Amino acid sequence: MRLIDADKINTKDVIGGASEFANDIRKAMQDLIDNAPTVDAEPLRHGKWIAVDDEYMDETLYKCSECHEDFVTIDGMPAQNLYKYCPNCGAKMQEECKKE
Q1: How wide is the angle at C-alpha 3 spanned by C-alphas 80 and 30, nearest 5°?
Q2: What's the sign of the alpha-carbon dihedral 80, 82, 84, 85?
Q3: pLDDT of residue 100
């Protein structure tokens, strides 16, 4: 699932022309957009990577402070490995890392 800004969709960008057929298609598309179900966005969670004192095959083990899921990194902490957000729970990670 992905959240979009439906108010910024311009059906004329998708179907050009001024024919009755094009107008009918644009109206049908707009009706689909307007009547699509909405989701309540959850507030953004913030977390920190927690360095776990356990070594895993010469790699460093980190844990998300929000969901407690473990992650292994090859070089450096997870934020340096493109994990700006927890891949498991979606929490936005702070730069600093706590030590467990």
Answers
A1: 150
A2: negative
A3: 55
